Amino acid sequence: MSGTVEVAALRGTVTANSISGLVTVSGNLASATLASVSGRVHYADGEWESVEASAVSGPIRLSSQRPVVSLDAEAVSGSIRFTGSLARNAQVDVESHSGSVELVHPSTTDARFELSSFSGSVTSRLRAMRNEVTSRSRMGPPNESLAFTTGSGSANVTASSFSGSVWILEPGQN
């Protein structure tokens, strides 16, 4: 359970866990469950439809070349970055307690977004936003949220961070 867990060029379903070390997965999978207590979780160079990823202390980096159906990612002390497109009716829930959240989607993304941060900023650079609603707390702790739709809003994306910023970007944007 301590050390690097590396899974490559598989098909089907994978579960990969590490207590202290990197979890790296690549390949074309239907689904994956990835977790690290103290280390990075990384899934790239492949296609997947459904992923559950968690890290207690470390970043989560996910990318898919296939439209994603389901993504559930949670980090306690680390950032999360997901790059990919969303399938129609996809469900995405990404949460970091102490770290930033970055979601990189093409400008053609068809989704309803609900973004929030307790003590960080919330920013979307998607050009096709509509029905935008922004909220910032005027009293008490800084609390910021942003809700908007792109396309017809068929997918649902929820992203939040307690003490980090939340970003929605298009490929090539920083």
Short description:
Helix content is 0%, strand content 66%.
Task: Describe what you observe in this structure.
By secondary structure, this protein is mainly β. It folds into two domains: 1-66, no CATH class; 69-174, no CATH class. Helix content is 0%, strand content 66%. It contains no helices and 15 strands. It has a 15-stranded mixed sheet that branches.
**Gross geometry:** globular
Low-confidence stretches: none
What is the H/E string? EEEEEEEEEEEEEEE
Mean pLDDT: 89
Which percent range fits the helix content? under 10%
Helix segment tally: 0
Whole-angstrom Rg? 16 Å
What is the count of β-strands? 15
What structural class is derived from the secondary structure elements?
mainly beta
Total domains, how many?
2
Strand content: over 45%
Distance between the termini: 35 Å
Main pleated-sheet profile: 15 strands, mixed
Task: Please give a handful of descriptors for the protein shown.
single chain, globular, mainly beta, 174 residues, 15-stranded mixed β-sheet
